Amino acid sequence: FLQKCRADSSYAKVDRDLNEAKLRGADMNDPAVQSLMEKKFAAEKSCDDRYAAQARGKQCLAGEDKRRQALEKALKADKQYQSLLKKAEPSVPLMGSEQL
């Protein structure tokens, strides 16, 4: 499904133009390149939404949600991971922009 969606001529043209810009070394902050990236993102989002609306897409999303929940549960139970999280937390509050 996604391969067919991405084979659409308008998506393929945007993707090709974006790849060419990257190969030419175009600045990714250039408005023209940003516009291409926005068009590509919108087309991919549309493909994803159409896929998610189908029975197979819903099944896939349910599986991903189940996997995410199992991962969260496992990480909460992992003492070594929780210890690393605590070490990574800043002990001193960072200065806000109003204090700069």
Per-chain topology:
Elements: H1 2-6, H2 9-23, H3 31-52, H4 55-77, H5 79-88
Question: What are the salient characteristics of this protein?
Answer:
single chain, 100 residues, mainly alpha, 5 helices, 75% helix, flat
Explain how this protein is built.
Helix 2 packs antiparallel against helix 3 (31-52). The chain has helices at 2-6, 9-23, 31-52, 55-77, 79-88. 2% of the residues are buried. The longest helix has 23 residues, at 55-77. It has five helices and no strands. 75% of the residues lie in helices and 0% in strands. The model has no long low-confidence stretch (mean pLDDT 87). The protein is mostly helical and 100 residues long.
Task: Assess the beta-strand content as a share of residues.
Answer: under 5%
Output the structural class: mainly alpha
Strand-and-helix sequence, N→C?
HHHHH
As a whole number of angstroms, the C-alpha radius of gyration is 21 Å
Average of per-residue pLDDT values: 87
Helix content: over 70%
Assembly status: single chain
Task: Extract low-pLDDT stretches.
Answer: none
Could you give a short description of this structure?
This protein is an all-alpha fold. It has five helices and no strands.
